[in-house]
Write a structure and sequence with these properties.
Helix content is 45%, strand content 16%. It contains 7 helices and 6 strands. Strands 1-2-3-4-6-5 form a 6-stranded antiparallel β-sheet, with helices on one face. Helix 3 crosses helix 7.
C-alpha cells in the first residue's frame, strides 16, 4: 500500500477559518498555494489511501471522488464562492454519486464526519427500499439494531403521512424517511493530525459495511 498520507494539520483548520471570513476570489487567489499544500494535497492522499485500504478489506472495487473547494453558486442564494470544508465519497461504480448510497468522510475547521447514505435519494429508490424492508422486516430490524444503539445519527427528512402496515418504531424511523444518511460527527481532535484518522475512518466504514451492502442491494 502506498503511504503518502501523514495526517491533516492545525494549519488546515486555520485555513478553513480564515476562508470563512475572507470568502472571496481575491483572498483565495492570494492564498491558493496554502490551499494546495494544506488542504488539497493531504485530502487527495487521504482519499486515495483510504480507498485502497477499503478495497483490500472488502474485496469490492470502489472509486473515490473528492469535493471541489469551489461552490456552484448559480442556483443558490448563498453567493460565497468557496466551501470552508472538504469531503470525499466512495462509490461502487460510475454515475452520479448524489443519487447512489456512498460511504463518505468530511472535514472542516471544528469537526470531522464519517457516514453512509445519500446526498438526495431518488423517490423510486426509497420506494424500492421500503419494499425490501417489507419483504423481511425481522431481517432489517436485526440489521439496524447496532446502528440505533451507536453514536451515529440517522439523517433525512421524514414524511408526515403514515404508511400502511405493522412495523416497530425503530423500523418506522428508517422506513418513513425521504432520504437516508447515517452519520457520526466528532469535534476536531488530535486524531486528525496523524494516520490515526485514516485507521479510524476505515474502522468506521467496516462498521457501516453491513448496512452499505443492504442499501446497495436495493433493486430499483
Amino acid at each position: 500500500m502506498t503511504e503518502n498520507f501523514s495526517g491533516f494539520s492545525d494549519e488546515m483548520c486555520r485555513f478553513f477559518i480564515e476562508l470563512r471570513f475572507n470568502n472571496n476570489k481575491e483572498w483565495f487567489g492570494a492564498n491558493r498555494d496554502r490551499y494546495t499544500k494544506l488542504v488539497k494535497e493531504p485530502m487527495d492522499a487521504f482519499a486515495a489511501e483510504l480507498n485502497e485500504a477499503l478495497i483490500k478489506q472488502t474485496g469490492v472495487k470502489t472509486m473515490f471522488s473528492v469535493s471541489r473547494i469551489n461552490r456552484d453558486i448559480r442556483f443558490t442564494k448563498n453567493k460565497e464562492p468557496y466551501r470552508d470544508h472538504r469531503w470525499v465519497v466512495f462509490k461502487r461504480d460510475v454515475g452520479d454519486w448524489k443519487r447512489k448510497p456512498v460511504l463518505y468522510f468530511e472535514i472542516g475547521a471544528e469537526y470531522y464526519s464519517v457516514g453512509l447514505g445519500f446526498y438526495d435519494a431518488p423517490p423510486e429508490y426509497m420506494g424500492a427500499f421500503r419494499k425490501k424492508i417489507d419483504s423481511n422486516i425481522p431481517q432489517f430490524e436485526s440489521l439496524i439494531k447496532k446502528y440505533d444503539k451507536s453514536q451515529y445519527q440517522l439523517l433525512g427528512d421524514s414524511y408526515k403521512k403514515k404508511f400502511p402496515g405493522q412495523r416497530s418504531d425503530s423500523v418506522n424511523n428508517w422506513y418513513t424517511r425521504k432520504s437516508i444518511a447515517l452519520q457520526l460527527t466528532l469535534p476536531t481532535d488530535s486524531r486528525i493530525l496523524s494516520r490515526k484518522i485514516l485507521d479510524f475512518s476505515l474502522e468506521q466504514f467496516m462498521f457501516l459495511m453491513p448496512l452499505n451492502e443492504y442499501l446497495n442491494g436495493v433493486s430499483v
